[in-house]
Design brief:
- Helix content is 15%, strand content 35%.
- The strands form 4 sheets. The protein has a 6-stranded mixed β-sheet, with helices on one face.
- The protein is built from 4 helices and 16 strands.
- The chain binds manganese (II) ion.
Length: 202
């Protein structure tokens, strides 16, 4: 694995719940360090410096090949595989950063902030249920078909900012329903047809 890129507000219903206009902006990106990845099935300490850890379930795409300023039509051939992941967020810290115009690094890119389920080879589906549940209760329920920017568009856009490369992971945004995780809760992110990602917070 090389780098982790994340797309912000890529589902209209989530953009609205965060107070944004979902249709005006091209996709924007932020990053997490590569060592923020956590395998499914682990118990994690509740992160320090937050009282409002949030879940964002997302389709994660892994690149097998890179390029610069690639065409959306060529982007699918660069995909190695996909998985379902959780973009963990210190929401209180992020809200403060938004208010003060400060960077998101510490609210998004902290230790163990990117749990990811097992990677499946091949192209991700363009539609299908993506859900997040806490202790068996569904909190987020969306469909990949509702992404504002599809995976090929995301790769094309991203590759105009940086040269993407084999080993890069891309979190492609979350549907509505983001919310807090509390100590002791078991969080499951699921994408239809593949293995889920499970993490428990201590
Ligand atoms: Mn996200």
């Amino acid at each position: 694995m090389r780098r982790i890129f994340c797309v912000g507000q890529n589902y209209a219903d989530h953009a609205r719940e965060m107070g944004s206009d979902p249709h005006r902006q091209p996709p924007f990106f932020f990053t997490k360090p590569a060592d923020a990845v956590v395998a499914s099935g682990l118990s994690l300490p509740y992160p320090a410096r937050t009282a409002d850890l949030h879940h964002e379930v997302e389709l994660v795409v892994a690149l097998g090949r890179g390029g610069s300023a690639v065409n959306a039509a060529d982007a699918p051939s660069m995909i190695f595989g996909y998985a379902v992941g959780i973009d963990l967020t210190r929401r209180d810290m992020q809200a403060e950063a938004k208010k003060t115009g400060r960077p998101w690094d510490m609210s998004k890119g902290f230790d163990q902030s990117a749990p990811i389920g097992p990677l499946v080879r091949g192209l991700p589906p363009s539609k299908g249920a993506i859900t997040l549940s806490i202790d068996g209760q569904v909190r987020q329920a969306g469909d990949l078909a509702d992404m504002i920017w599809n995976v090929a568009d995301i790769i094309a856009f991203l590759s105009t900012y940086v040269a993407v490369a084999a080993g890069d992971l891309i979190f492609t945004g979350t549907p509505a329903g983001v919310g807090p995780i509390h100590r002791g809760e078991r969080v499951r992110g699921a994408l239809v047809g593949i293995e889920p990602v499970d993490v428990t917070f201590l």
